[in-house]
Amino acid sequence: MKKQEGSNFLKICCMFGIAALAACGNEPDSPANSSATNIVNTSSAVTVAPGKPPQLVEATIAGLQASLRTGESTCHDIVQGYLDRIEVYDQPNGINAITVINNNALNRADEIDAALAAGENMPELFCAPLLVKDNYDTADMVTTGGSAALQNSIPPDDAFMIRKLREAGAIVIAKTNMAEWAFSPRQSISSSFGRTANAYDVNYVPAGSSGGTASGVAASLGVAGMGSDTGNSIRGPSSHLALFGIRSTLGLTSRDGVIPLSFDRDIAGPMTRTVEDGVRLFNVIADYDSGDPLAVPDRREDNYLDFLNAYGLEGKRLGVLRVLVDQDGADPEIQEIFARALGELEAAGAEIVDPIAITEFEALSDAIPFCPRFRYDVAQYFATLENPPLTDVNEVLETGQIADATRGSFSFYAAAPLDIPPDEWEMPCPTWPNNPQRNQLLQNAMAAMNAAQIDAIIFPTWSNPPAHIDRGAEEYAGDNNQLLAPDAGLPAVTIPMGFWQDWLPVGLQFVGRPYAEGTLIELAYSYEQATQHRRPPAGFQELN
C-alpha cells in the first residue's frame, strides 16, 4: 500500500521553477506582525519567469510565499519539488516516513497559481505543502491510524484542523507513518506501513508515535507537519529530530476527526523546523470547535504571531524542575547540554530559578491512572465514518491485522466497556477536568509557579539520546513528556538545544500556565533566534 494514491512522479529532470527565497522571512528582531492577517495582499497579478527549481531544504512558509509573490516560482513547482524529494529520499534513504501521497495536491497547487496570476488576495498559508500524521481524517486520502485493519478507510470529511489548514491555503501533500493506533512513545511501527527511522541516523528511532511526521519534516519532505500528542508524541519526536513542537492546553484546540488514543489527554498540533512556521500553523488551528466536547471557547489569543519576539526572554523567570533533569539514568552529556542551555537562556536575558519543586509531583503522577478508555473512544470515532470497517477495536485481534509491537497493548484495553462512558464505569474514569488527582497536580504546579514567580518550567525534553532502532523498547529511557503537561492539561513546547555527540538532536522543553501558549511561543522563538541550534540531517540535499 506504500504511496498507493498518486505515486507517479515526474522525473527530477522535469522539475521547473525558481528557488524559494528562504532569506525573505522575518529578521530576527522583527516579529511577523505584518503577516498576521488572514488574507495576504498580493496587490497585483504575478508573472512567472523561467529559472531554476525551487530550493526546498530548510525552506520556510514565508520564504516559499515570497518566491511566489515575486514570480520566481510557482506553487506547482514547489509541490512537485516536495513530491520528488519524497520519491528520491524517503524509501531510498531508509526513513519510511511517508505513507500515502495526495493525488489532488498538484491540482490544488494549480488553483493557487491561477489565483496568484489573477492578482487575488491569498489566505495566510497559501501553498504551504504539509505532511500530516495518518490519524487525521482526510476526505481525499485514507486514514489508517497505522492499522492495516483501516487500510481502506476514507473518512467522509476532513478533521477540523485539516479543514482549517486547507481553508487557509495549505496543501496536504502526504500522510505520514505512525506508531500503530498511537500506542508507542518509543518508536513508530505500524502494521499498515512498517517502521520509520530517524532522519539523522536510520539506525536510531524517531520516537513515537508521530515519528513519520518528525523524520519527514526534518528531511524537508514537506515545509511543515502535523502530529498528535497523548503523552509524548509531538514533543518526543520533535526533540529527536531537531524540531519545534507544541502541545496546547487541553480545551484550546480541537481533536475532532483525529483517531483517539485517550480523548481526555489527546492533543493535535504542529511539528516544524522553525518556531515561526509552527506558529503560522497554530494561529490557524487554534480555534473553538463545538464538535470537541472538551473545547473551551474564547481562550485563544487574537494573533499568536504577535508573540514572535526575538527579545522575549528578557526579564522572564524560568524554573528548573530538577526531578526531570537529574533522575537516575539520565545521560551525562545531555545534562551538560541542558546546563549550557541554562547559560544561553541567561545570556538572552532570562533569570533562572534553580531548582523549583512541585508538591507531591511524583506521588500524584504515579497516582493518576491512565484511563483505559481507548476502546470506548475509538468506537465513538468509528460512528463518525459512513462505512466503518470496524465497530470495535477488539475485532482487530480477531483479524490478526496488528503489529507484534502493538498486540500486547490491546490486552490492556480489551476488557474495558464499549458502550458505557468512562465517567459511568463501575470504577469511574473521570474525564478531565473532573479528575481529582489531575486537578490536584494542576493546582500544585500553579502554586509552585506562583511561589517562584516564574513564567515557565524547563527541563530536557528527553534525558537520554534516541534508542537504537532494533532496541527501541529495551533502550527506552529519559522520556520526560509523559507526566506534567498531559497529566495536568498544561501547554508545552520543545525546541532544539543541541546535539548529543554532535550527532543526534536534543530538545529543551518549556511548560506554561493554562492557555499561556503565547508566552511559550515568545520564549521558544527568542531562544531559537539567540542560539540557532537546528541544522538539517545529512543526506537530503537539494535535488538541483
Task: Describe the 3D structure.
There is one protein chain. By secondary structure, the chain is an alpha/beta fold. It has one domain: Amidase signature (AS) enzymes, CATH 3.90.1300. It contains 15 helices and 15 strands. The chain has helices at 61-69, 75-90, 105-117, 160-167, 211-218, 235-240, 275-285, 332-347, 361-367, 374-382, 394-399, 404-414, 436-452, 484-488, 517-531; strands at residues 39-40, 98-101, 122-123, 128-133, 170-176, 189-190, 194-195, 224-229, 244-247, 267-272, 317-321, 351-356, 456-460, 492-500, 504-511. The protein has an eleven-stranded mixed β-sheet with strand order 2-5-4-8-10-9-14-15-13-11-12, with helices on both faces. A two-stranded antiparallel ribbon has the order 1-3. A two-stranded antiparallel ribbon has the order 6-7. α4 links the parallel β4 and β5 (170-176). The protein starts with 38 loop residues before the first strand and ends in a 13-residue tail after the last helix.
